[in-house]
Design brief:
The protein is mostly helical and 75 residues long. It has 4 helices and no strands. The model has no long low-confidence stretch (mean pLDDT 87).
């Protein structure tokens, strides 16, 4: 991230680092949800209906992101 910050244009440094951080937060969130589901559901439950839960979480996160973006840029 330091290299990315140093190589970014001066007026875009914050955006470059924020995009990299957002990707890392997404990876950590996905790993956490997968670990939680694997530890709480049996393999049969995970195969039958549990695999849908991460998609539902993604839909909720997308809706929250759209709501945040609209409230920040269009008050």
């Amino acid at each position: 991230m330091v290299y990315l910050y140093e190589q970014a244009p001066h007026n875009r440094r914050g955006m470059y680092v924020a995009l990299n951080t957002a990707c890392e937060v997404g990876f950590l969130s996905a790993t956490g949800v997968a670990a939680l589901l694997r530890s709480t559901l049996s393999p049969a439950q995970l195969d039958s209906w549990g695999w849908r839960i991460p998609f539902f979480c993604g839909i909720l996160a997308a809706l929250f992101g759209v709501w945040m973006r609209r409230s920040l840029f269009f008050p």
